[in-house]
DNA sequence: TACCGTTGCCAACAAGTGTTGGCAAACTGA
DNA sequence: TCAGTTTGCCAACACTTGTTGGCAACGGTA
């Protein structure tokens, strides 16, 4: 139980600005100076509170997929539920976008992305897959589709993918994810 | 018909080194100095022959998907043929990897990626899709899956995706691409 | 009040970046 | 042979980057 500090607001402002910049520009093009300017403080404050740029990114890219509990859900609805959940996670929080943009050139960010899918999608796959031994592969295939969708929609902004409304996107993606999760290979 | 210049070998060496560096490090972390060092020439030569870093990248990321002619192929084999072709294109040439890594932070590279799928996958989808009007969407969905696969396998290096051998990868991906190409939505 | 840790800013550093201009050597054509 | 072009390197430029140290103002505590 730590006492709240007077600088907590500054810390939070830095983190918010960092997430925005990392999400928009990636790791190398997001500069400490720009982040500090957004947070309306001096760049040296960023260093004092977060040590260096990598640790700032690590703090800003803290993320949890919050995978839903699918026990009890209709077996043929798993794909729809999962895809719908993923899209919500992407749209509600730019942290994942920051993580994806950075992961392409930052090994630490890539490692975190790997951990995210292994630790959160893997167990879910293990519970519903016909053979639990296939769970990592199934989680990996789901990653290829969901990260690919996010890449095309939010990063590359491929027009036909941007144009999809939520329901249509789910209609396209759900059968794919359903098959990766429970289908026979 | 231009006469071959004495500097053509240097130009080619620069281009090869540039492709390697851009593919491995992305646009901003690949430095002119490092590229020049790989090509064993002075950094100023890169500027003389390619003007600036952006134009160097544009030259290094010249790429053609070389989509195969699928007229006459069995309708139910389209997914397999396409996926197999994509994987070959990815593995045979690091240009596509350079383009993907750069596209995440460089708008010009993203634009080229958009053009690639619109101009090469789009027409193919128009020929085999039930309704040609859906071709852009279908090409876009194929992009989400194939770029997502490349992202996870070559960039993020998700272990279960890296571990897939070529046949297994095709077995997973082909039905997805087949459905995006010809399935009902 | 006097004290001391906290918060913040300013100025500067060292390193690395893309980029440029000039100059020597090598080559080409007459 | 000799002028003119091409090829290459060196040194430097202007700028940006992450990062550091010092110094003033603030705020709670005794």
Descriptive keywords:
185 residues, 2 domains, 10 helices, 0% strand, DNA-binding
Concise structural overview:
Chain A has 185 residues and is mainly alpha-helical. Chain A has helices at residues 8-29, 32-38, 43-50, 53-60, 78-92, 95-103, 107-128, 135-155, 159-163, 166-182.
How would you characterize this protein structure?
- Chains A, B: Pfam families: TetR_C_16 (PF17920), TetR_N (PF00440).
- Chains A, B: It comes from Actinoplanes aureus.
- 2 copies of one chain form a homodimer.
- The first copy, chain A, has 185 residues and is an all-alpha fold.
- The first copy, chain A, has 2 domains: 53 residues, Homeodomain-like (Arc Repressor Mutant, subunit A, Orthogonal Bundle), CATH 1.10.10; 108 residues, no CATH class.
- Helices cover 72% and strands 0% of the residues of chain A.
- Chain A contains 10 helices and no strands.
- In chain A, helix 1 crosses helix 2, helix 2 crosses helix 3 and helix 5 crosses helix 10.
- The longest helix of chain A has 22 residues.
- The termini of chain A are far apart.
- At the A-B interface, helix 1, helix 6, helix 7, helix 8 and helix 9 of A face helix 1, helix 6, helix 7, helix 8 and helix 9 of B.
- Chain A binds a DNA duplex (30 and 30 nucleotides) through helix 3.
Compile the SSE list and pairings.
Two copies of one chain form a homodimer.
Chain A: H1 8-29, H2 32-38, H3 43-50, H4 53-60, H5 78-92, H6 95-103, H7 107-128, H8 135-155, H9 159-163, H10 166-182
The structure holds a DNA duplex (30 and 30 nucleotides).
